Amino acid sequence: MHNTIIAQRYAKAVFELALEMNLLEEIKADMELISSICADNKDFIRMLNSPVIRTDKKIKILKSVFEKEISDISMRYLVIITNKMREKYIRDIADEFLSVYKKFKNIFTVHFASAREITDEIRKKVIKLLEDQTKGNIELIEEVKEDLIGGFVMNYDDYKYDASIAYQLKKLKHTAAEINLYVRGI
Known about the structure:
By secondary structure, the chain is of the alpha+beta class. It contains 8 helices and 4 strands, in the order H-H-H-H-H-H-E-H-E-E-E-H. The protein has a 4-stranded mixed β-sheet with strand order 2-1-3-4.
């Protein structure tokens, strides 16, 4: 089975459990913590992926890392995943849970890259414009990329809007390359 399919199935199961038990926000916070720990610690991921480390040892490590930090439901879920030999998907499951949560809450994550830091006024205008367009809540992730020269690039879902000067120059260069100076115009 493909990794994303496994992650989607396990994430959906824990999401439905969280909804049923009215613990959605608590489980979401747990999944954010699990995802961040997995993202920040490559040795932890290597341990989860290791076929040499026994399941009971992995469960002890998971408990020592997470037991005091996450809810009992989330901890039990990690133990179940590990007992089913799916521990290498823990980060994918947590990330997929967060995606399902955002879809459920109608939250759109927008990546906004600009040549320099934007002002609060522009930030509010961008968020307002996107909220009107998507009819949802906007989570704006800003990034400064000086190689854009000026303007901005915005990505959300499958949409990309590139209004950077670097892109305009690239388009101009491509268009200029198509002009044939040897053909006499009438």
